[in-house]
Design goal:
Largest sheet: 3 strands, antiparallel
Helix content: under 10%
Distance between the termini: 83 Å
Structural class: mainly beta
Strand order of the largest sheet: 4-1-5
Order of helices and strands: EEEEHE
Number of strands: 5
Oligomer: single chain
Radius of gyration: 34 Å
Strand content: 15-25%
Number of helices: 1
Shape: flat
Length: about 100
């Protein structure tokens, strides 16, 4: 098949649009402040914190995102707390 040739058009000069500025009270509508009704404050459930101690003072468990500083660490995620409890040398502390 023969390649189809397309004719190119010369670039037209950019036309300048006229800017019309109008001033006056009748052109502008009054702006009203929009406020949303306030929502009632709901009681926030306290977050359960799980505290752990480790035999290794600076144990880091990167897969769980936990680092023990001076042998202590705290987490709020139940799944992470359960996983930490299975590690040797780590103990859960009851508050």
């Amino acid at each position: 098949m023969a390649a189809k040739k397309t004719a190119t058009k010369p670039v037209e000069a950019v036309k300048e649009d006229k800017v019309v500025e109008t001033t006056g009270a009748k052109d502008k509508a009054p702006v009203e402040a929009k406020t949303e009704p306030t929502k009632p404050v709901e009681a926030v459930k306290p977050v359960k914190v799980y505290n752990f101690i480790s035999a290794n003072k600076f144990l880091t468990v990167t897969s769980l995102g936990v680092q023990f500083i001076d042998g202590k660490a705290s987490v709020t995620d139940v799944a992470v707390a359960r996983a930490l409890a299975t590690i040797d040398g780590v103990e859960h502390i009851e508050d």
